[in-house]
Design brief:
- It comes from Marinobacterium stanieri.
- One of its GO terms (molecular function) is sequence-specific DNA binding.
- Pfam families: DUF6597 (PF20240), HTH_18 (PF12833).
- Residues 175-276 form the HTH araC/xylS-type domain.
- 41% of the residues lie in helices and 20% in strands.
- With 289 residues, the chain is an alpha+beta fold.
- The chain folds into 2 domains: 7-165, no CATH class; 175-285, Arc Repressor Mutant, subunit A.
- It has a 7-stranded mixed sheet with strand order 11-8-7-10-5-4-12. Strands 1-2-3 form a 3-stranded antiparallel sheet.
- The radius of gyration is 18 Å and the shape is globular.
- The two termini are 22 Å apart.
Length: 289
């Protein structure tokens, strides 16, 4: 998430502050980490518009990999020697199959939650739930593409992309949407449209229209994403967790509602996800560069 006030990226989370208020949002793709053959390398960005860079070799021997909703735009490079490729990936609204090829090396750029890079020739709404070929979406990127996919060193790939992005800006977001995004993240997605109306001073219709134009989705859809990411983050970082308490903390009416929502957005139940995370030693798979 990038707010006009301040935004600082820290690995898989973004801490943003306005005045004396500080909120943290998360943008994790746990199935990517779990599908890494060895380590999942991660590099924090110094540019507030970019959440982080990542690199891994895909191991698809155990089946499908899923992308979960994160409110972010990713650029994913397949650095295969024979048939390199790159895709611009908008956030899904529910868990969906991510096409990764076995033993291929990937380099990724994850923009901060809510950021749409202005060099992309597509709207925020067109990005959500869609993927586009990078070279068709960004004219003139071929020289950087060839250098990035031809370099096997993670730090060099990061440097090359930063060189391309230097001086560029994210697409401008309205103050109305920024206030709404900040409030949604502050409440971990547990917020009603009436509260957002009171906060922004705009009617529900005006707020939803502006938010849709800026973010490519409704405030309700974005709130679902923030709540999902908060749940995933808690499970990833807590060795012992009571799901009924987590459901209550995130504002779900009851545990069955939480279970249904989690399965839609993460493609498995919280208990099965927790078991997979613990068996795979999730946090130790991530290697900070």
């Amino acid at each position: 998430m990038v707010l006009s006030m301040l935004s600082v990226s820290d690995g898989n989370n973004v801490t943003a502050s306005a005045g004396n208020k500080t909120v943290t949002s998360y943008s994790e793709q746990p199935w990517f980490v779990l599908s890494a053959a060895r380590h999942y390398d991660l590099h924090m960005s110094q540019d507030p518009a970019i959440s982080h860079f990542y690199s891994f070799e895909a191991d698809q021997s155990e089946g499908l990999t899923f992308a979960i909703p994160d409110g972010c735009v990713d650029i994913l490079f397949d650095c295969d020697d024979a048939r390199p490729d790159a895709q611009v990936c908008g956030s899904p609204l529910e868990a969906r199959h991510a096409v990764l090829k076995h033993k291929h090396s990937y380099f990724g750029v994850r923009f901060a939650m809510g950021v749409v890079p202005d060099f992309l020739d597509v709207s925020a709404e067109e990005l959500v739930n869609h993927e586009y070929g990078l070279l068709e979406t960004v004219p003139g990127f071929e020289p950087f593409f060839e250098q990035i996919v031809g370099d096997s060193t993670f730090s060099s790939q990061v440097e090359l992309f930063n060189r391309f992005y230097s001086g560029k800006m994210p697409r401008k977001t309205s103050d109305t949407t920024l206030k709404a995004v900040h409030a949604i993240c502050q409440q971990k997605g547990d917020i009603r449209i009436k509260e957002l109306e009171n906060l922004t001073g705009y009617s529900s219709r005006t707020l939803q229209r502006q938010f849709q134009a800026d973010m490519g989705m409704s405030p309700k859809a974005f709130s679902r994403i923030v709540r999902c990411q908060s749940a995933v983050h808690e499970i990833n970082h807590q060795s012992s967790i009571v799901f009924s308490e987590l459901a209550s903390d995130l504002g779900f009416s009851d545990q069955p509602h939480f279970l249904r929502e989690f399965k839609k957005l993460v493609s498995t139940t919280p208990m099965n996800y927790q078991r997979r995370v613990q068996q795979s030693d999730y946090l130790h798979r991530i290697r900070y560069a």
